[in-house]
Amino acid sequence: AFIIDLDSDTADKFIQLFGTKGAKRVLCPIPYPESPTRFINCEQVLGLNLMNRGNYYWEVELIDGWVSIGVIAEDFDPREAYNHGRLGRNDRSCCLQWNGQNYVAWFGGFECTIQQPFFHTIGVFLEYSEKALTFYGVKDSKMTCLQQLKVSSSAKGKLDPFQNKINRQFASLFSCKLKPAFFLESVDAHLQIGPLKKDCVSVLKRR
Q: From CA 56, how far away is CA 125, in angstroms rounded?
């Protein structure tokens, strides 16, 4: 299990933090001190934690609104313009987005819509050495795989633009140290880094 603390020095001025675990998008800007790591064009915030070896698992509670959960390269420029700076709209980050109707996986500006119902809790499993990131819907200690981002040698990658993009560039993301990343897209977006369901950790250990 991986304990994530949100980094207030990265939080966009329209994100209010609740301790180190909660984040909510607000309408009135918060007068955070200037910081070279602060997002200024996207309502995003990062975890303090660096990931560069082994496996990591964390869970996020989607409380309200449109929320994206993912990872980003440590050296990503937080001053990037909105269109390119959002999670998954560049080659330096990827995410799972809830857009009010569907889950959508994003990487490098390519998207993949996922046909699954809403889950209040999302589990994120990063296997750094395997160069894989898997998103799970978690409910009643059951884990439903929503999407795995990983290079695949199957024929699907040649036909599917999203998997083709993964095959071409996803592995290079793992040449960087990665950080947990969160995008609060809608004005009511609200998330909480959740306490882990112990059963899920044991399930992952068996895999």
A: 6
Task: Compute the C-alpha angle 152/99/79, nearest 5°.
Answer: 80
Helix, strand, or coil here: 152?
coil
Amino acid type, 38? R
- DSSP letters of 5-67? -B-TTT--TTEEEETTTEEEE-SSPP-PPP-TT--SSS-EEEBS--B-SSEEEEEEEEEES-E
> Of 162, 169, 128, 122, which is closest to residue 144 (Cα–Cα)?
122
In our burial notation (b when 16+ CB lie closer than 10 A, e otherwise), range 127-158 reads bbeebbbbbbbbeeeebeebbebbeeeeeebe
Place of tokens 């884990």: 143
Cα gap 110→161, rounded to integer Å: 7
Q: In the chain, what are the domain boundaries?
A: 15-206
pLDDT of residue 2: 82
Pick the CATH number of 15-206 from 2.60.120.920, 2.40.40.10, 3.30.470.10, 2.40.110.10: 2.60.120.920
Spans of the chain, pLDDT less than 70: 1, 155-158, 196-207
> Would you state the pLDDT for residue 201?
57
What does pTM read for this prediction? 0.93
